[in-house]
Amino acid sequence: xxxxxxxxxxxxxxxxxxxxxxxxxxxxxxxxxxxxxxxxxxxxxxxxxxxxxxxxxxxxxxxxxxxxxxxxxxxxxxxxxxxxxxxxxxxxxxxxxxxxxxxxxxxxxxxxxxxxxxxxxxxxxxxxxxxxxxxxxxxxxxxxxxxxxxxxxxxxxxxxxxxxxxxxxxxxxxxxxxxxxxxxxxxxxxxxxxx
Length: 195
Known about the structure:
Blueprint: H1 2-13, E1 18-23, H2 25-36, E2 41-47, H3 61-66, H4 69-79, H5 88-98, H6 101-116, H7 119-124, E3 130-135, H8 144-152, E4 156-161, H9 168-171, H10 173-187
Parallel strand pairs: 1-2, 2-3, 3-4
């Protein structure tokens, strides 16, 4: 996956370096890319990523495979702090995605990768600052371990979004964008330098 991202950034966009943003598993993919191609990345924003603590979906993979709406609702209740803000279609989408065998195979593969991924080694190779933005009620990948990781590693900062679960960009988009914008502005080089 990292090399697919490399191809997109280098050959297709022509724009580099970039600030990568990733939620959940895509946060690990962005971290992996930034650690392997540091010259291509000015900054990294991660949210709700696994790797330091075991994912806790609150439902078994076997029950997800069956694709029941009840299981999809249970997962939704763990992903979102305020499930009332999620349209019914969101729960239906979870049910449809999980009931497809090829999607479940991919989920299991990515879960296994996240369990084996060496966060510490990847972070040691980074040459850019990292912003961690977590929901304060993330039950899937709680932020406590990531907050402690940030305290031990210079160049990594940790912020929490209040009243929010696993995906702050969906539940609290204004707060997420504010934190993201502040971070990007702090690392951005001015286009024109004045004397």
